[in-house]
Amino acid sequence: MKKPVSQLTAKKVFVVGENNLQNELIVSALEKETSIPCLAVADLAQVKPSLHGSESTKCLILYDCLGKDGKDCLADLEHNEIGQSLLMGLFNLERGTGLEKDAISCGVRGFFYRGESFNLFAKGVAAIFEGEFWVSRRLLSELIPQERTLSGRMQLRLLSKPEKEVLRFMVGGATNNEIADAMFISRHTVKNHLQKIFRKINVHSKTQAVLWAASHLQF
Fold it and tell me: Count of CB atoms within 10 A of residue 106's CB?
């Protein structure tokens, strides 16, 4: 069942890629299925002008990876600095590239592979807007430690307010330098926070920490 339009006015989707016909069809189908306003643009540079006056809007960028090297896609996302308040997903992604781990660390929250149905695509878009990661169970099992000495709720209580804030910035794809600037702290302090976070929630990488935060923190 579709949600009332009144609940969706603060959302917007940008479908980014050079395949104009394909992306226009995706935009039309997504709007029909979800009632979320969608816009097809050729590249990330065209996203920024469309964001003016939309500070309160939750935006999702769906980046077309068809015919592109995965690393080039991530480099494009990082180079354009489109903003950490935006959600990001990659579509037309080739399986088996191993790109996902690096992509999650860069703030990408969902992966849509070539050959998948549109229904699955639309379902993933909705999940991302609900604050979920749209990734395979296999990938989750690889990235998140299966054995934990404390429950997620107990681990959350161990985190200080600044440590939770660091995690929130990480989920948005912020780098250590960006986190330091945003929180008005030194880069050394950010690293200290990360070391404590890793120990408290029993993870060993930023990717694992981001996935843990997406499951346990309120945004």
Answer: 18
User: Of 21, 7, 1, whose CA–CA distance to 64 is shortest?
Assistant: 21
Start-to-end Cα distance in the chain = 25
Q: Pinpoint the residues of the chain covered by CATH 3.40.50.2300.
A: 5-142
Query: Closest Cα partner for 50 from 19, 23, 86, 94?
Result: 86
The CATH number given to 144-216 is 1.10.10.10
What would the two tokens of residue 189 be? 């302090």
- What is the model's pTM? 0.74
Q: What CA–CA distance (Å, rounded) separates 99 from 33?
A: 29
CA atoms within 13 A on the CB side of 160: 11
User: Quick one: 5-142 is in which CATH superfamily?
Assistant: Response regulator (3.40.50.2300)
Query: What pLDDT digit, counting tens, does each position of 30-58 carry?
Result: 999 999 999 999 998 888 777 766 667 88
